[in-house]
Design brief:
The complex is a heterodimer. By secondary structure, chain A is mostly helical. Chain A has 4 helices and 1 strand, in the order ααβαα. In chain A, α3 runs antiparallel to α4. Chain B contains 17 helices and 1 strand. In chain B, α13 packs antiparallel against α14. Classes of the chains: A mainly alpha, B mainly alpha.
Chain lengths: 132, 553
């Protein structure tokens, strides 16, 4: 069975578990906060599960075939993995400045936001270059 | 920075270049990021450990004034926060960062740049939390749980709590992205033949941990945002005088807080499984049972949060008590399978194995006392005493920390190409193990006598001073043991004996590549026919139908 399908089932069964426990919990406790948390957990995992399950059909990976060999992938493109990028550290710095700026004032939050936006634009441009 | 094409057979080896500071800043290689994670978390570990020593010194005798009350409150808040958010959980994620692609035969994680972002966010979050120490009002001092209304603006006005909230938010975002990255990588980037049922148990536990992170961390982020809105923007989520509810904070916080315990333990269960299997010279006993037990633990962990709230009187105690008792069953299965793996194995006992066995003994005490406090009548008796503190230290320090040290001794040779000194390692293990138990067994007893947690000093009631003094002495021995391992790391990094590719006779794929692995991890992959492909490659005659043998256990 394909791993993506396994993944879909993993999400969907976790979603079913969340909703079942939410119902049981409501029945024994009539407590709103926990029921909402469990229910929302179920719903959000369900959404992820449906997405993965819908994409599972076309995903036949050599990894899922027990007798496949590494050589089968020789020469094939298996993914794009950049080895370095200066934008992640820049984005993290932007997020940190922005977050602390929410405490101390816009003079810190604004440069943080600008730095973060610049980093995101940089990441997007870089992605395009990598995909090419 | 380009697409990776799977290697045909062998590529010419490129000589390794020593990375400069700038290279570390911009790296997106999962191995470098893994090393950054582990080095940073060990740094925070030393700081949080030093804080613990100061607290133990303060409590050695009643009436001491090594630190004053407000400073003490900051210390226990920072100790808990750092150990949970910056050491035990992220070290495991860092280890998985390094190992996961190697374990499944991939070139890197699915999203290398997002991976780098998670590390820098973790570091920024940690520094933000600790930056509170520079303020005149000090760092957050309301305990790592940051309960409202203690943490509201009226009761804790300084910006220390705000910095803490922002730091924890950054760490939440970092963890969620890491979980997405791990899940995507395992689903899509396994090597040909690495079916889901051939994944090492460590990888399965990382899958389960990632699922828990996805379920638990968003509520934490919500709790933090609401707390911040209450403090700074005039909100009343947790303010009972304006129709809010302080109990709501506890619900949302523990909906994260208890699953987080399993984020801090499941990866280490995986570590112990790999170490025990390797040094018993046997495949993992009951592989499928191990995997299913991890899922059962994860599922149950989402339904036990309010056992932290038994004494509020505002929750359904029987429901949470029964759910909490049930967790002992899958955990018991894990113990059974570890013993099954060792049974009739050709056991050897290098330092990593000793730490793994130390983990099993300590965690057992943590687990058994966990069953005790899952019973509301017993919990009412020991709530907020040192008994409870000691219970969770046996799971997370005696448990996770010992497995963390086992992981260091086991994978250091793969990461650096050099062995850690076994002599120093053995000495470190015995000092750590004995010191740990001398520190914490007296705390069980003083907790049963009623000593409350989070107090700066105490009355000289019968037994209390003696037990506390013994505990402080034990903490000194424990610190010596940890210091020896740290010294071992520093010395062996440059002067350790060369490790070779596979110093332990390991079974998983990382032992089939060089130490340290090349830039894209593998020059050539062996065929994958069981959950021990490196073992199959080394001993083709030893595994008739590899997988069948591995499954039979």
């Amino acid at each position: 069975m394909s791993a993506v399908r396994t993944g879909g089932r993993m999400f969907l069964s976790s979603a079913a578990f969340g909703i079942a426990v939410a119902l049981g919990y409501w029945f024994v406790s009539h407590e709103a906060a926990g029921t909402a948390l469990l229910g929302l957990m179920g719903v959000s995992l369900g959404a992820a599960g449906v997405y993965v399950a819908r994409h599972a059909r076309g995903a036949a990976l050599p990894a899922d075939q027990p007798e496949s060999r590494p050589e089968q992938l020789a020469g094939q493109r298996v993914g794009a993995f950049p080895t370095s990028s200066s934008y992640p550290v820049m984005l993290a710095a932007g997020i940190a400045l922005f977050s602390v700026g929410l405490i101390y004032g816009w003079w810190l939050a604004l440069p943080g936001a600008l730095l973060g936006v610049a980093a995101i634009i940089g990441l997007m441009r870089e992605s395009r270059a990598i995909e090419r | 920075m380009t697409a990776v094409v799977a290697p045909a057979a062998a590529e010419p080896r490129r000589p390794a270049r020593r990375a400069g500071v700038l290279d570390w800043l911009v790296t997106t290689d999962h191995k470098h990021i893994g090393i950054l994670y582990m080095a940073t978390t060990l740094g925070f570990f030393l700081v949080a450990g030093a804080i613990a020593l100061v607290m133990r010194a303060q409590l050695a005798q009643p009436g001491l004034h090594i630190v004053e009350r407000q400073a003490y409150n900051q210390l226990f808040t920072l100790h808990g926060t750092a150990m949970i958010f910056l050491v035990i959980a992220p070290f495991a994620l860092g280890l998985a960062n390094y190992l996961l692609p190697l374990h499944i035969g991939a070139a890197d994680l699915a999203f290398p740049r997002m991976n780098a972002l998670t590390y820098w966010l973790l570091l920024a979050g940690g520094l933000t939390i600790f930056s509170g120490l520079l303020l005149s009002t000090g760092a957050a001092a309301a305990g790592w749980t940051m309960y409202a209304p203690l943490s509201d603006f009226e009761n804790t006005p300084g910006p220390g709590v705000d910095l803490w909230i922002m730091g924890v938010l950054m760490i939440s975002a970092s963890s969620i992205m890491t979980a997405i990255n791990f899940l995507t990588t395992v689903m899509l980037f396994r090597a040909p033949g690495m079916t889901m049922m051939r994944l090492p148990v460590f990888v399965w536990n990382i899958i389960v941990t990632s699922l828990i992170i996805l379920m638990a961390f968003p509520p934490l982020a919500v709790a933090m945002a609401e707390l911040f809105i209450d403090r700074r923007l005039g909100g009343h989520f947790f303010d009972a005088s304006h129709g809010g509810s302080a109990i709501l904070y506890q619900h949302v916080f523990w909906f994260f807080g208890h699953p987080e315990v399993y984020v801090m333990i499941l990866p280490y269960f995986g570590v112990v499984t790999q170490v025990v299997s390797t040094f018993s010279r046997r495949p993992v006993f009951g592989y499928l049972g191990m995997v299913l037990a991890s899922f059962a633990i994860a599922g149950l962990s989402m339904g036990v949060w309010a056992h932290h709230m038994f004494t509020t009187g505002a929750v359904n105690n029987p429901f949470f008590s029964i759910m909490s008792f049930l967790i002992a069953v899958p955990t018991g299965i894990k113990y059974f399978n570890w013993i099954g793996t060792m049974w009739q194995g050709a056991l050897v006992f290098p330092t990593a194995m000793l730490f793994a066995i130390g983990f099993m003994l300590n965690f057992l005490l943590g687990g058994v006392t966990g069953v005790m406090v899952a019973s509301p009548p017993l919990d009412y008796h020991v709530e907020d005493t040192y008994f409870l503190v000691t219970h969770f230290h046996y799971t997370l320090a005696g448990g996770s920390m010992f497995a963390l040290l086992a992981a260091l001794y086991f994978w250091f040779p793969k990461i650096t190409g050099r062995l850690l000194s076994e002599r120093l390692g053995m000495l470190s293990f015995w000092l750590t193990f004995v010191g740990y138990n001398i520190t914490f067994i007296p705390l069980f007893l003083v907790g049963l006598l009623g000593m409350p947690r989070r107090v700066v000093t105490y009355l000289p009631l019968p037994g209390w001073p003696e037990l506390n003094l013994t505990s402080t002495a034990g903490a000194g021995v424990l610190a010596l043991g940890i210091a020896l391992t740290m010294w071992n790391l520093v010395v062996s990094w440059s002067r350790g004996a060369p490790a070779g590719d596979d110093p332990w006779g390991g079974g998983t794929l990382e032992w089939a590549t060089s130490s340290p692995p090349p830039e894209r991890n593998f020059h050539a992959l062996p065929p994958i026919r069981s959950d021990r492909p490196a073992f199959d490659m080394r001993m083709p005659q030893g595994t008739p139908g590899g997988q069948a043998r591995a499954r039979a256990g």
